[in-house]
Amino acid sequence: MQNQPADTSTKKAADSIQSMTGFAAVVVPTRSGGLSLEMRSVNSRFLDIQVRMPDELRLVEAGIREALSARLQRGKVECRLNWVKDNHAPPLPRLQTSVLKQLADLENEVRQSLPGAGGFRVVDVLNWPGALEDNSLTTDELRQVVQQATDEALDALIAARRREGARLATVLTEKIEGMQAVLATLEPRLSEFLQAHADKITARLQESLSKAMENTGTHPHLQELHDRIRQEVSIHHVRVDVAEELDRLKTHFIEIKRNLKSKGPVGKRLDFLTQELNREANTLGSKSTAIEQTQASIELKVLIEQVREQVQNLE
Q1: pLDDT by residue (tens digit) across 137-147?
Q2: CATH number for position 52
Q3: In this predicted model, what pLDDT tens digit does every residue of 35-65 receive, in sequence order?
Q4: Which residues pair with 314 in a beta bridge?
């Protein structure tokens, strides 16, 4: 039997994070020859199973589909079932000696009654039902062999998907940590950016109000003027404050890391969280009051896009 190595925990593979990409191949020897089963899977929004096999094997297709549906959640899985071609000459079928003895006894009885009757020709003996060994598998035997091949190939496929899933989890964790580093650099300077923005707004308002007073000849009380400026600055401060966006980004980071360590399919959930990350990063950029904040938003969106591409591979 030839198959790809699978670790001892493959029976629990469906409980661990998996990629949707994998390949496995097994060959199960039988008296009718080797039965080969290949499985390969790629990304898909749902579980899409395609089975390719000769018409004489179609009776086992339902069993293969049931086995895959029981252990996989997502992915386009293509299965190829076929008899292995042997480049060497196949062994000659063996004669059934018990049948040959029966034929010989029959021939002797006929000769005793009809001494002039001709004997069996070789071709007559070879064509006699049961004279040659029958290497074909019964329906039950074929089902058992296919079930064995399916179980072994599925174990190996899931093991491959788990290994790829572990690699993707490592990559995604690194991307999230990169985003956390961007926020760690940006956050201490936000108050500085807000103050600089407030100073600019104050200067512009003072200039605008001064021109307006000169044009109208009005001279409001100084305290009233300061109160109006402070009110306008406060309104602008609320509009550009990104504290909530940063809190939500941090919460999403924690949730993504938690999912990467969890068991079972997480791809759809992570895809949703990635969309939320992108929404917050866009808002962070739209509320930017400094070039550094804009650059941080761009860096976040680049990392988020890389995460999104990798998340598409997870089951």
Answers
A1: 888 999 999 99
A2: 3.30.230
A3: 999 999 999 999 999 999 999 899 999 999 9
A4: 19
